[in-house]
Write a structure and sequence with these properties.
Elements (H helix, E strand, L loop, with lengths): L20 E3 H11 L4 E4 L6 H9 L3 E4 L3 H15 L3 E5 L3 H16 L3 E7 L2 H5 L10 H5 L5 E4 L6 H13 L5 E7 H5 L1 E3 H7 L14 H12 L4 E5 L1 H5 L3 H11 L3 E3 L19 H7 L2 E5 L22 E6 L13 E4 L2 H12 L8 H21 L9 H14 L4 E5 L2 H9 L8 E2 L10 H12 L3 E6 H7 L3 H6 L4 E7 L28 H7 L3 E5 L2 H14 L3 E6 L24
Parallel strand pairs: 2-3, 2-4, 4-5, 5-7, 6-7, 9-10, 9-11, 11-12, 12-13, 14-15, 14-16, 16-17, 17-19, 18-19
Antiparallel strand pairs: 1-8
The structure holds adenosine-5'-diphosphate and magnesium ion.
Adenosine-5'-diphosphate binds next to helix 11.
């Protein structure tokens, strides 16, 4: 399908036909722009190629990727960083399915995004007559996202986009699917009627005030605590209530534990940080405040050995989603509302006679933390060649400390687990990682969005396996000349590079890659900067140079292939056969 740019059909001979027309293409662009959605992450193709062109011609930023999953991951991270739904644009059937993985992941992570996908003709799809890329996309998307809509008439585009925006950002944020059949784009409407049909969404994510009695109950529970703890999750980071949260935590005097993507909301070197005493605080605390975090697998579901004696805890849970309460354990004080309003209310209700937590609890937590921090500091000071994870991460830790505005993207197994504890964050929403599903493949999409949405330099710390899932997007990074520095921790394989094929056969073990792969040469192919490093000093120099220059750079950091453990720190989730076969 092709449409001439900006040209409107009009018959000069017939005055009655001279009324100005608009079409589906333009109405969609106008609807998005009206709502301040100006960036599209996508992959062109039938039937949305011209839409992308027209969007660019009309002042939108249209960033093309090499695979829809990464465009989708970029849109999701754009949503997380800005609080507005990130937009992903895909072609029908296979392109849609590729983007759907990212939409489902965004929904799981509570990131707002909209997947706009072209689709085939309804009449043919519904009769299953075998259209080009035929698929009932709406039905397939529905169970995997927060909401799914289809627009059939151009005059409904305004309301369809409004519904999608509201569904994505109100309440618990998530992914929304918007189905756009090919025929919609070419439909014409009288321009003035089209303009009237557009909707600027008023207050898309309305505040949700917590009930006063829920606040009183929470304060009661907190006042009875002898060993309180606050766990801060990425929902709190998303809410952009940074000062308010800091003030509440500091006034309360309660130690806090940030979840991975909430690191930096309060700095990791904050006097109340309990990060390095994680095991102790989970086990020993008696009252736990959950602030925009879920008691899912990442927190052992709030029960079991990690959480100490059964029944030893009371939970105060602050979340915008009422059904999150009691999802894994009993919640003594549910506080349902948006984080900003909830924290404000709690802060007010604390009153001026608020007592600091008992000092024996605080010294137990902070002593343990200081001991662990001292051990870690020694470990990351190492200068081994070949580098192990701590040597390489020690170099990056110092760089992030010196450059706190850097956006850090992180995925892998060991590369993720070690980086999370080694690299301190001091600013909110600067760390993007594998999130709730713990998936691989978010790296380059997240790096693109981090660069585009913030304008800050990006450091992507990638396991060699993790990088492979989105590696082709380094062309995208080079094409848009984004200030992204990728460091690949190359240990020749998944977890490590030393597994052997027990049969002695020709194939290597399933976890092993080509030895000494020259990833940096891939970057050179796209006219980016590629660097091969084997030592801590070389790594430091290369990263600093990249961040100073802002040039797209890929650093292939050679890590000891013996370093690394199976599945990093979540090896316990991996069933292993105990049956010996000879
Ligand atoms: P983490 O993985 O860091 O623990 P989760 O993604 O599991 O964080 O949890 C985030 C929680 O934050 C979700 O339960 C979500 O409903 C909640 N949330 C997101 N935005 C807000 C908000 N503005 N106000 C309150 N809760 C929010
Ligand atoms: Mg590896």
């Amino acid at each position: 399908m092709s449409v001439e740019l900006e040209e409107r059909p009009a018959n000069a001979d017939d005055a009655s036909q001279e009324q100005e027309l608009t079409d589906g293409f333009h109405l969609l662009i106008d609807a998005l722009k009206l709502n301040d959605l100006n960036t599209i992450y996508g992959v062109p193709g039938i039937p949305i190629t011209d839409f992308g062109r027209l969007a660019q011609a009309n002042g939108m930023r249209v960033l093309s990727f090499r695979h829809e999953q990464h465009a989708g991951n970029a849109a999701a991270i754009a949503g997380y960083l800005t609080g507005k739904p990130g937009l992903c644009l895909t072609v029908s059937a296979p392109g849609f399915l590729n983007g759907l993985t990212a939409l489902a992941n965004a929904t799981t992570n509570c990131f707002p995004m909209i997947l706009l996908s072209g689709s085939s003709e309804r009449e043919i799809v519904d009769l299953q007559q075998g259209d080009y890329e035929e698929m009932d996309q709406l039905a397939i998307a529905k169970p995997l996202c927060k909401a799914a809509f289809r627009i059939l008439h151009a005059e409904d585009i305004g309301i369809g986009v409004a519904r999608a925006i509201r569904a994505a950002v109100s309440g618990r944020p998530g992914g929304v699917y918007l189905d756009l059949p090919a025929a919609l784009f070419g439909q014409t409407v009288e321009a003035s009627l089209g303009a009237q049909s557009l909707v600027k969404v008023v207050d898309p994510a309305p505040r949700q005030l917590p009930a006063p009695d829920s606040i009183a109950r929470a304060i009661d529970v907190l006042k009875g605590a002898k060993k309180p703890l606050i766990i801060i999750g990425k929902g709190a980071a998303y809410a952009q209530a940074d000062e308010l949260i800091k003030r509440f935590v500091e006034r309360s005097g309660i130690p806090f534990l940030p979840m991975s993507m909430a690191k930096g909301l309060l700095p990791d070197n904050h006097p109340q940080s309990a990060s390095a005493a994680r095991s102790l605080v989970l086990k020993e605390s008696d009252v736990v405040v959950m602030l925009g975090a879920r008691l899912n697998w990442l927190l052992s579901h709030g029960k079991g050995k990690a959480w100490g004696a059964p029944g030893s805890k009371k939970f105060v849970h602050i979340d915008i989603e009422p059904r999150e309460m009691d999802s894994n354990v009993e919640i003594a004080a549910p506080v349902v509302g948006d984080i900003t309003s909830c924290v404000e209310a709690l802060d007010n209700a604390m009153g001026n006679d608020w007592k600091q937590p008992p000092s024996d609890w605080l010294s137990a937590v902070y002593d343990k933390r200081d001991t662990n921090v001292a051990k870690l500091t020694q470990k990351v000071g190492s200068d081994l060649t070949p580098m192990d994870f701590h040597t390489a991460l020690g170099a990056l830790r110092q760089i992030i400390e010196e450059r706190p505005e850097t956006m850090l993207v992180n995925e892998g197994a060991n590369t993720l687990d070690f980086a999370r504890s080694v690299i301190n964050m001091s600013k909110p929403r600067k760390r993007i990682d594998v999130g709730t599903w713990g998936i691989m493949g978010i790296g380059m999409g997240a790096a693109v969005a981090a660069a585009v949405e913030t304008g800050n330099p990006v450091l992507a710390v990638e396991g060699d396996s993790a990088f492979g899932f989105s590696g082709m997007e380094i062309e995208t990074i080079c094409r848009y000349n984004l200030p992204v520095c990728i460091v690949i921790f190359n240990n020749n394989g998944i977890y490590r590079g030393t597994d052997v094929n027990p049969t002695g056969g020709e194939d290597v073990a399933p976890t092993v890659f080509v030895k000494d792969t020259r990833y940096e040469m891939m970057m050179e192919a796209f006219h980016g900067v590629g660097v091969y490093v084997t030592s801590r000093d070389e790594l430091s120099t290369a990263v600093n140079t990249a961040l100073d220059s802002g040039k797209p750079t890929l650093i292939n950091a050679i890590i000891d292939e013996n370093a690394g453990t199976e599945s990093g720190r979540i090896g316990n989730l991996n069933p292993q056969s105990v049956v010996k076969k000879t």
